[in-house]
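Homework help thread (please don't just give me the answer)

Our assignment gives two proteins as sequence + structure token strings and asks us to describe the second one. The first is just a warm-up. Here they are:
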Amino acid sequence: MNTTEFIYQLIQTGHPVSTDTRKDLTNSIFFAIKGENFDGNNYIHQALEKGAKLVISDSPQISEGNNILKVENTISTLQQVAALHRKQLKIPIIAINGSNGKTTTKELVSSVLSTKYKVFSTLGNMNNHIGLPLSLLSITHEHQVGVIEIGANHIGENELLTNITSPTHGIITNIGKDHLGEFGGFENVVKAYKEYIDYFVSNNEFPFIYPASDPHIAGIITACHAFSFGESNAMQTGKVLESKPEIVVEIDDRNFGKSIISTKMFGSYNLNNILAAKIIADIFEINQDSFRNAIEQYLPQNMRSQILNWKGNQVFLDTYNANPSSMQLALNEFNNLKINNKILIIGDMHELGEYSFSEHAQIIETIKGMKLMQVVLVGNEFEKFKNNLNCIHFINVSELKTWFDLQTYSDCSFLVKASRSEKLELLFKA
């Protein structure tokens, strides 16, 4: 029995996996993972004191003992254990990938499938090289379907994470300008998503769902068992009837004709996420009424496409993440809304590397073409452009909130968007 099999056997006998000493570790298997901001090896003794059954470590400073197992690489070991667990699961796994809209699509798909099946869905943003294996290990034999979000930011990661997941169905939402700094430019972004698509090319019996209008995808899916979605020239079509600001969409159903769905979501770009969920609904034989009800009842949370009522003002809160593609979509949507007293509060987009200046400059040019009552910029990157625009600038949300709490707004509409670390949602908390 090798190390992976030994660890997995312990998991199968009821020992949960953990990477966080702040949680209950009774009888758990603690993976001491070294990340960018923490090193789990510094908490090994604490993990054992809290009841961990076994600690997995790759630190040369740690000695192997009765409750400590040394491995060459802790993260790789976690991934191998997760891949072994996936092989034991005889259920369909739907993988969701793309530059924008992954999480919303994941939640819509999960909501639709949950009308008929017991579904496991990636919790929060546990979609990277550490979070994804932990997500897979949370799937039990009680689940009938798994919905797994894949998030990569380096070349090679999509291939690795897709192979660990071994999905039976795939969705790609789009290919846009995400993680430009880490990937090393947009050409490498396309290459990275090709790694994901290549899995479905190689396993062409598995359904692969993609946006028909994305030019970067169409040329590399020829061997896939493909299902396209979009407003036109696609297998699954639909359109946005109105944004009030919640979108009302019309979905074409090949069997039942057109149906109108009133959502609780802001942003016409969410149409594609709904259409992807509709294809999954058809594949898994979810009826039209169940699909419509699931979409209509879905309430955006976690700072994604949320609509808040704040002191008599309307807030479009989308601060979970931002990249140049998602920022442009949000600005265009806000600009097209037929409402008065628009106020824009946007913060820096991160992980852009050498492309940061030019991408922030393009956002500034977009803002110049918008009719806005007020513009507030936040962050070090946007500071470089504060003299190019009629705006107010703050270095961070703490400075902004001090000023913001003293302002009086009435009947205004705010678009608030930034990368996660800017924490702009704090503006609306006491």
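The one we have to describe:
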Amino acid sequence: MATELADFPEWKCPYCGKLLPSGEYNQTIEEFRVKAEQKLKEQQRKDGEYFEEQKQKLIQKNEAEIENQRKIHNSNTRMIRDELQASYDKQFEDLKKSYDELARQRQNYSDKLLASYEEELYEKDRQLQELQNEQADFKAQTIEEAKAAVQKEIDEKDPIDTHSRDGNDEDYLK
């Protein structure tokens, strides 16, 4: 057994407490529902506008922050790049100085070594020349000794008086 709204002849208004006939009550309820819907829609529209406004403010704030961070990032990137370039240039200059120093040391060592080899070569040439001179002297002395030995042998084998010879072999052979 369901109770219909029409079954009640009068209704009491929940807001003002006044007794209303059921038709009027239904009309008032309907008006209240329409007003409530309108208020709700208006509140939703205002809330939507407010939230949209807040959203736009947040978007602008975030975009500004992103732009600020981008500037900071670009500045830091330039600074790091400059520091790296300076470091690279310094390291390159240091390596170049080290290379130049090593090249100079190597050249000094090579010059000393070359001078030592030239001195040693000069000494060896001098010793070779002395040996060649001694060899020539020894050869000449050996030839003289061999001639003298041959002459002595000839003189010993030939009893002829070699003093009577005048050095002319033709007379001696006759």
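TA reply:
I won't write it for you, but here's a hint about the kind of observation we're looking for: Helices lie at 22-157, 169-173.
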